[in-house]
Amino acid sequence: MERVTRKVLLRATTLVILCAAVFAGAGYRTSQHLRSTLIDESEESSLAAATGFAETVSEWILTDSLQHLERGVEIMLLGSSRYVQIGYEDRMLIDGRAEEWEQAALPSVDRLPARATVHTLPLKGHLIIETTLPLRERSFTVGFVRVGTYSQLLESRLQRLNWLLGAVGAILWLFAAAAICWIVIRQARRTATASIGESLGNVAPLRELFAQRPIVIDLRARTISCQGESRLLTPKPFGLLTLLLSDSSHIFSDREIMEAIWPDCRYTSANDVHQCVYRLRRLLNDIDPDLGLCIANVKGFGYRFEANDRVGFEGVDFEHARSQ
């Protein structure tokens, strides 16, 4: 039984891990798509704002209004912008930065941009949306405007997304662990019941005679038959019957029955045994009114299978019944 349980555990674990891996892969792809969507929306918003500022900068440069440029940069830095750089020809006209960004090492602009670019990058522990736009005069690029914007909304959304994915992942693995435990416990109970029946397979041929009436117990099909009447036994009553038949001279205590019928359950009690005995007697009486009396209660000791005045009992040898 222990070997079977380990085998089932290995198979169940493999199956559940494979399923969890599939769901995790799908979740990862979904998270990447959501992350990309959030970043794209924020980048589009930053690009629109920077484009409007760059158009104004071009007008100020044409009119040689340096004071307007400086004032415009100051206003940008009062908002969510962390740095604003304006380059013209071969020199940096303005390099405006927020207070905490004065010493920050920013990526250099090696050449004048041919078109507008926007991307998100980590700087100083924050996500910065950097937008670079060309300044043109008569279709020629003569400078650039670079704006680094801190989007607190984007950062908080990504944090919530990561938290949500982490919670979903944890729940998924909890369900996986619960599924493994359920499969193993279910198989262990089946194996325990089957092992009781298999223990009867090394003795003489099955011949149960009750008042010259043959009683046939099929351990594979879990059925009991008498003169054409057949009943399917549920796992627990079937396990109890095969246990009592395995040694009719032995009185099985409540503890022995619990260990055999509920091997992996720590919360069984004598009341569970009594209920199981009651169900077994009722099933046997459905076949023959006298059969239930053979499940005897030896007060203070336990239960055994024995004959009585109404049901004759001849020396019975028990074996695993083979289906016809």
Write up this protein.
The chain has helices spanning 2-62, 66-78, 152-198, 235-246, 254-261, 270-287, and strands at residues 81-88, 91-97, 117-123, 126-137, 140-150, 208-210, 213-218, 223-226, 229-232, 295-298, 302-305. It is an alpha+beta fold and 324 residues long. The protein has two domains: 2-159, Beta-Lactamase (2-Layer Sandwich), CATH 3.30.450.20; 199-305, Arc Repressor Mutant, subunit A, CATH 1.10.10.10. Strands 2-1-5-4-3 form a five-stranded antiparallel β-sheet, with helices on one face. Strands 6-7-8-9 form a four-stranded antiparallel β-sheet, covered by helices on one side. Strand 4 (126-137) and strand 5 form a beta hairpin.
Provide a concise account of the structure shown.
With 324 residues, this protein is an alpha+beta fold. The protein has helices at 2-62, 66-78, 152-198, 235-246, 254-261, 270-287, and strands at residues 81-88, 91-97, 117-123, 126-137, 140-150, 208-210, 213-218, 223-226, 229-232, 295-298, 302-305.
